[in-house]
Write a structure and sequence with these properties.
Layout lengths: L1 E4 L5 H11 L17 E9 L3 E10 L2 E10 L9 H18 L14 H9 L4 H12 L3 H18 L6 E8 L17 H4 L2 H21 L3 E9 L7 H14 L7 E7 L6 H9 L4 E4 L6 H6 L6 H14 L3 E8 L6 H14 L3 E6 L7 H4 L12 H14 L3 E6 L10 E5 L6 H8 L4 E4 L4 E7 L7 E7 L4 H6 L1 H6 L9 H13 L1
Parallel strand pairs: 1-2, 5-6, 5-13, 6-7, 7-8, 8-9, 9-10
Antiparallel strand pairs: 2-3, 3-4, 10-12, 11-12, 14-15
Helix pairs in contact: 1-2, 3-5, 4-5, 7-8, 8-9, 9-11, 12-14
Length: 507
């Protein structure tokens, strides 16, 4: 897709808006114009301190549509927001005229859509007013506006009285027994790469020790620990026991709000592994079928069956681990409303404490793209009906939405939502998606996020990210450089980077 935008306009924001109407598009500087190449021009028509008017012109397949958008600073829209809102309205109008399609989330973009609602509630808008602003100013569908405000209200309720010195820890185990066709995570499945696990764990143990020492030195208290991947239960029983022993040597599980093991794949779950998990204080586990249809499981490259899921779920229940999450995906290739509605009904019958409903999202690294299947979808087919059904059925069953996020190239421009029974909300998910406190991450592909609150009573933050090497072999190769840095080359250690970011936080 070809974009032409005024210098004052955030091009990345315009790209995100365009992806709603042209999912899967690439934005290159050297794109050659053609009839089948969409072209969007966005410019500012007028601007002062209080008002902005923007124009967007869409040219595609010899058809042109034009949209204009205006925004005025008022009690609901700050001066810093008016340019973004005016541009969003202009692009939204041009796309709507061309396709006759109303995106359910309007011009509200970004991963953390509920953060806008959080800010409004914290600034005293009230639930009804916040919904109205999302509908009127951001063009959000009324049902989605209600969802965003509900999630925001729950987040505030669960976190408003927590101490300010909390942090969380993420431990990365980026290995899987096989790769799902839709997967975009850094996970490794070949025999050669899986053979790195023992060396990877030995390096990880050292870094876990150093990380917790750094947290204690910084005067922070660990609220949650999340072991993710990949699939952490790809580890053998001995490897899993050693990993948990090293973590619990550094932090007492009884002191944590939550200690999560992302088991994920039913074909990796055994009675012995979950017995070990329970012994070391794991309080939350995920068992993720994605769908309860064997044909769909085959089409997406999952190496387990529906029967395998029920076996694994039964093991999880009998393990005594108190909170069990089940992940599902709406809009999978080969899925439809009949299949998905049957899946959600059967999962609710099991009564897990958490149900997370994702919407199928196509990532650049997914194997599905290599098979040249037409997986991108603007309207999403049955996905919207599936998502709406899941929201209705979970509500009737006593589950409440407590965290939400969105991704690019999601079918139907839909959302991912976590539902929980009262008192079983996944706090790590809230902390991560709300960016409420710093998340310290260790292992290949891990990203530490240092959160700085701009004002004590505000939802606004500044985030500083510190990246670990993406691949396990890089992580192993650079272990000493990560720990010690290289002063001669001006490369700070991981600890130095964290300390510098925390000092900014104090400032």
């Amino acid at each position: 897709m070809i974009l032409h935008v005024d210098e004052a306009i955030n091009a990345s924001y315009v790209q995100t808006l365009c992806l709603v109407f042209f999912p899967g598009s690439k934005f290159g500087q050297n794109e050659i114009p053609s009839e089948d190449t969409p072209e969007m021009t966005v410019r500012i028509l007028s601007r002062d301190d209080e008002n902005v008017t923007a124009e967007a012109v869409l040219l595609y397949r010899q058809k042109v549509t034009c949209g204009t958008g205006s925004a005025t600073a008022n009690e609901d829209i700050s001066r810093s927001q008016i340019l973004k809102i005016a541009v969003g309205r202009a692009v939204f109008e041009a796309g709507k005229k061309y396709f006759g399609y109303m995106p359910p989330w309007g011009i509200l973009t970004g991963v953390r859509s509920s953060k806008v609602a959080v800010e409004m509630l914290l600034n005293g808008k009230g639930i009804r007013r916040a919904r109205q602003i999302l509908r009127d100013e951001y063009f959000v569908n009324p049902k989605k506006a209600s969802l965003a405000v509900s999630v925001a209200s729950t987040e505030i309720k669960l976190t408003k009285k927590l101490p300010s010195n909390l942090c969380s820890v993420y431990v990365s185990i980026p290995f899987c027994p096989s790769r799902c066709a839709y997967c975009s995570f850094v996970s490794y499945t070949s025999a050669k790469l899986l053979s790195l696990i023992d060396d990877y764990l030995q390096t990880l143990y050292t870094d876990i020790k150093h990380l917790f020492a750094l947290i204690r030195e910084s005067g922070l208290s660990v609220a949650t620990v999340y072991i993710g991947g990949g699939t952490p239960t790809v580890l053998s029983e001995k490897q899993l026991a050693n990993l948990l022993a090293h973590i619990t040597k550094e932090v007492d599980p009884a002191s944590l709000m939550e200690f999560t093991l992302e088991a994920g794949r039913p074909d990796t779950i055994t009675e012995g592994k979950l017995k070990i998990a329970r012994k070391y204080g794991i309080s939350r586990i995920s068992v993720n079928p994605q769908t309860l249809n064997d044909d769909v499981l085959v089409s997406i490259g999952r190496k387990h069956t529906v029967e395998d899921f029920y076996r694994a779920y039964d093991i999880a229940v009998k393990s005594g681990i108190p909170d069990i999450n089940v992940d599902l995906i709406a809009g999978l290739p080969g899925d439809d409303f009949s299949i998905f509605s049957d899946t959600i009904d059967r999962i609710i019958d099991l009564r897990p404490t958490n149900i997370t409903v994702h919407t199928f999202s196509v990532k650049k690294a997914a194997d599905l793209l290599r098979s040249e299947q037409n997986v991108y979808s603007m309207k999403g087919g049955d996905a919207a009906q599936c998502v709406e059904y899941s929201q209705l059925k979970t509500k009737l069953a006593g589950y409440k939405p407590y965290y939400m996020y969105r991704q690019k190239n999601t079918v139907g421009n839909l959302e991912n939502v976590g539902y929980a029974l009262d008192g079983a909300e996944g706090m790590y998910n809230i902390f991560m998606m709300g960016e409420l406190h710093s998340i310290f991450a260790v292992g290949a592909g891990a990203v530490t996020k240092i959160v700085r609150h701009i004002h004590e009573d505000s939802a606004k933050q500044q985030i500083e990210r510190i990246f670990m090497p993406k691949y396990p072999y890089e992580y192993l190769r650079d272990a000493e450089l990560i720990r010690k840095g290289d002063p001669e080359r001006g490369i700070p250690s991981f600890a130095d980077k964290v300390k510098a970011a925390l000092l900014k936080n104090e400032g």
